[in-house]
Every structure is written in C-alpha cells, then in structure tokens.
Design brief:
The chain is α/β, with parallel strands linked by helices and 266 residues long. The protein has a 6-stranded parallel β-sheet with strand order 4-3-1-2-9-10, sandwiched between helices. A 4-stranded parallel β-sheet has the order 6-5-7-8, with helices on both faces. Helix 1 packs across helix 11 and helix 5 crosses helix 11. The two termini are 28 Å apart.
C-alpha cells in the first residue's frame, strides 16, 4: 500500500501549489491531481453543490487506489471536509488547519487576517478554528473574488493587480494586522504583489508547505509512507479544458505536464 498514490483535488488549478510543496517534501510519493475545471470556481457555489462535487471526486480518487486525499481547495475544506471525513474511511486532510497552525506561530500582536473566496470567508471556517486554538485573537476577514481570475489570466504583476490588492487589503493595514492567511491556493502566485501592498513586516501564510508537512506526518503515523528512493509519478485528471490546464499548470508548478486526462463525473 505504501506505493499507492496521494490524491490532491481542487476546483481548478490552485491546488497545484500544494502539489509542488508535496513533491518537494515527499519526492518518492506518487501523486494524483484532480482539477474540477468544468465547475470552477467553487467559491461562489452553494454548500450543497460543493459537498456534492467533493463527494463525487473523493469516490473517483478512491477508485484510483489513493491511500490519502488532500482537499487542496479552501472552499471544499471549509464546506465539505467534515462530511467527507464522516462518510469515507480514507485519511483526509484539508488546507485550513495547517494554515491556522502556521498563523498562530507567526503572529506577534495577535491580529490575524484571512483572505479568500466569498464561500470560504462566509463559512467562517478559519475563524472558528483560530478562536478554538487561541483566545484573545483579533481576526479580520476579507473576500477577494478578483484574485483567482487575475492569477488564471496571468496578471501577476503590474498596475491592475497592485490596485486590486491595495483596495482589498487597505482595511487590514489600517487594523495593524501582522499575519495574513492566504485562504485560497491561487493566492501564493500573487505573493509578490500582496507583499508590496501590506504593511512592512506583515507575514503572509501560504498553507501549501504546512499542508505538505502535515501530510508527511499523517503518512508516517499511519505507516503508509513510501520509503522508495525512486521519484514518484504525477498523474493529472480534469473535468474540462485539458490543454488550457496544461498551459496554466506550468505557471503553478514551474514544470511541463506531459499528459492530462479528461474525466466526466456523473
């Protein structure tokens, strides 16, 4: 079972930031990635739909012999992870708890910001876990719906992303927030822009690295870590536009994907 793959899923491309971190932390592990490109984004979908989509994808990945599933989509982590955990026996990990843990270690003044999709922010998932882990925190949340299209259109620098980021984050600057959780896996690609517009010394938390480390911990604890010295394989599935996915995936991974398979879920 140790040679079985880790599966990662997201509504589209963003979860590839988690894949990149996993490949660095666990180079011997085979990874399957599932991007629901036909139904992206999840951030403006209802809780019912996000749960339905997440269940379908989880069933597909279990059938592909995944030994663990990482829910790399913040919206699905917020709205569907609890249901998936109760319904399926496979080990599951979302990106919210690792991001929270990193933010709590990083903050100095206990003023933490969260930016994400409309659905993630509306769910209050980050706030709930932050408050449960640490009393006395001042938490500031902001939905930033324009960030995902900026990333997917390749607008990673210049006046447009600068202006959008400044507009979204000016309130957090005014509130002297010293740590901001990037609550969407697309957002790390905008890190240089975000770092320019936030207050000096503000720490931006990208949960991809923390999620990869948490994945390694879980695999070891469960006794299903792949100890091979050979590099792991990488397989991609999408629900639409495989050629576009291949082109944009290069932006996230820094490497070319050889093949992307199209899947039609029912």
């Amino acid at each position: 079972m140790n040679s079985d793959p880790i599966a990662v899923f997201d509504s589209g491309l963003g979860g590839l930031t988690v894949v990149k971190a996993l490949q660095k932390a666990l180079p011997s592990e085979a990874i399957i990635y599932f991007g629901d490109s036909a139904r992206v984004p999840y951030g403006n979908k209802s809780k019912t739909l996000v749960r339905e989509y997440s269940r379908e994808i989880t069933e597909f990945l279990i059938n592909k012999k995944a030994k663990m599933i990482v829910v790399a989509c913040n919206t699905a982590s917020a709205l569907a992870l609890e249901n998936l955990t109760s319904e399926f026996e496979i080990p599951l990990l979302g990106v919210i708890e690792p991001g929270v843990e990193a933010a709590l270690k990083a903050t100095g003044n206990h003023r933490v910001g969260i930016i994400g999709t409309i659905a993630t922010i509306r769910s209050g998932a980050y706030e709930k876990i932050l408050k449960a882990r640490s009393r006395g925190l001042n938490i500031f949340s902001k939905s930033c719906p324009l960030f995902v299209p900026l990333v997917e259109e390749g607008w990673l620098n210049g006046s447009v992303p600068d202006l959008v980021a400044a507009e979204y984050l000016h309130e957090m600057n005014a509130q002297n927030v010293d740590t901001i959780i990037l609550g969407c896996t697309h957002y790390p690609l905008l890190k240089p822009v975000l770092q320019k517009v936030v207050n000096m010394d503000t720490i931006l938390i990208d949960s991809a690295d923390t999620t990869a480390l948490k994945t390694a911990e879980m695999l070891k604890k469960l006794g299903i870590l792949n100890n091979s010295s050979k590099p792991g394989s990488f397989t991609c599935f999408v629900t639409d536009l495989p050629l576009r996915f291949k082109v944009l995936a290069h932006r996230f991974l820094g490497t070319v994907i050889d093949h992307v398979s199209t899947v039609h879920l029912t």
